[in-house]
Design a protein that fits this description.
Layout: E1 8-11, H1 14-20, E2 26-31, H2 64-81, E3 82-92, H3 97-107, E4 110-119, E5 135-142, H4 153-159, E6 168-171, E7 181-182, E8 185-186, H5 194-204, E9 210-213, H6 220-227, E10 231-236, H7 239-250, H8 257-260, H9 274-279, E11 288-291, E12 298-301, E13 307-309, E14 314-315, H10 317-325, H11 331-334, E15 335-338, E16 345-347, H12 349-360
Parallel strand pairs: 1-10, 2-3, 2-9, 4-6, 9-10
Antiparallel strand pairs: 3-5, 4-5, 7-8, 11-12, 11-15, 12-13, 13-14, 15-16
Helix pairs in contact: 1-2, 2-3, 5-6
């Protein structure tokens, strides 16, 4: 496929379809892969009614080796499809999440967080032989360590009553009207709550970003993406789920863009010490810097990343600036260098941004 099939559900095997999509084309991937629960027997409640557990064919693998092979294949494609600034979310249980995390690290993903989804209404352990399994784990990772990535910190803080959001998310299981049912039975055994995807997408994507879900199921990712003004692509091999997801997403009314596209908060810039410019040859020891472009206020760059002002004071670009003005000073904007090609004086922040662009592909 030369063009992305945006806002579409692709019916088929996720690995085969992912291989057809163009590389470096999606901003975020949310994956809810098979758990490989390895159930050996049916489960019953104390009243002898059968537990509706995950026993679908798609969750069954011959061995751990077979599951690992499958996991490596789809993660490899996910890595190929993500932009260098993209991130990947994977959710799982104790049956599979540790195997997935190991493979992710082997492939070069850099883990940013593990999130614990604490289920406020978990299914009891009916046999009473283990602790009640009341959580699932999400791994959030970036494709390439050190690259800038999207994290809407302020929006997540606002969502949490202006408190910094933690890595334990207390969200109920998908129940009630949200739970899709066919003839009174659950349509999908592992349908995720929309509240969970809301946090995932609001935290790590922007309006217009492309979100891929290779295990689309009944379309929760598409529902939330549409509501939040994100573009989405779903891959699902079960035709029944494809149709249910399509109907479900068509019924969604997107929120007005004026309430979705929030004003940008001041974002923390990737920290670059002034000395990095010297290490990488953007400036050299002995080069002259001019305070606020004034040729009469000169400092010289030292080999260790400090500068020496004309009165003999040595320190950081910020400390020397504060010495001159008697007030707090942003040295990146206050000190100017002379461009070797044009001869004009320019703020050294120009060099910082050039370094970020050339080293990381972004100025932030």
């Amino acid at each position: 496929m030369s063009e992305l099939p945006l806002d579409q559900i692709l019916h088929g095997d996720c690995i085969e379809i992912m291989q057809q999509l163009p590389p470096h084309s999606v901003d975020c991937i949310f994956a809810d892969p098979p758990y490989n629960l390895q159930l050996r027997q049916e489960l019953y409640r104390p009243n002898r009614t059968k537990v509706d557990a995950v026993d679908d064919a798609w969750d069954q693998f011959e061995s751990f080796h077979a599951y690992d092979e499958f996991t490596t294949q789809w993660l490899t494609q996910a890595q190929r499809l993500l932009k260098d600034t993209g991130t990947l979310w994977v959710i799982g249980t104790y049956h599979n999440i540790f195997r997935i995390g190991k493979i992710m690290q082997d492939l070069g993903f850099w883990i940013l967080n593990d999130i614990i989804w604490v289920k406020t209404n978990p299914m009891p352990n009916f046999r009473g032989v283990r602790f009640t399994n009341a959580h699932e784990t999400l791994i959030w990772a970036q494709k390439q360590q050190g690259k800038p990535y999207t994290f809407n910190y302020h929006d997540m803080k606002a969502l949490n009553d202006d408190l910094q959001m933690r890595s334990d998310w207390h969200i109920p299981l998908c129940t009630g009207r949200e739970r899709l049912r066919v003839n009174g039975e659950k349509a999908h055994s592992t349908q995720k709550p929309e509240a969970l995807l809301y946090r995932v997408l609001l935290s790590s994507t922007r309006v217009g970003d492309v979100v891929l879900d290779p295990f689309f199921g009944t379309g929760t990712t598409g529902v939330v993406a549409k509501r939040l003004g994100r573009r989405w692509i779903g891959i699902e091999r079960d035709a029944r789920y494809v149709e249910l997801a399509r109907q479900r997403i068509e019924a969604v009314t997107p929120a007005l863009i004026e309430y979705v596209e929030l004003p940008a908060h001041p974002r923390r810039q990737l920290r670059v010490p002034f000395g990095v410019l010297i290490e990488n040859g953007y400036l050299s020891a002995g080069d002259a810097l001019y305070f606020e472009g004034n040729l009469k206020k000169v400092a010289r760059v030292l080999v260790n990343g400090h500068i020496r002002y004309q009165d003999g004071l040595e320190g950081s670009i910020h400390a020397v600036g504060r010495h001159i003005t008697g007030a707090p000073c942003n040295g990146w904007e206050a000190w100017y260098y002379q461009d070797s090609e044009t001869g004009e004086l320019r703020p050294i922040d120009v060099l910082r941004k050039r370094f970020l662009r050339e080293a990381y592909g972004s100025e932030k």
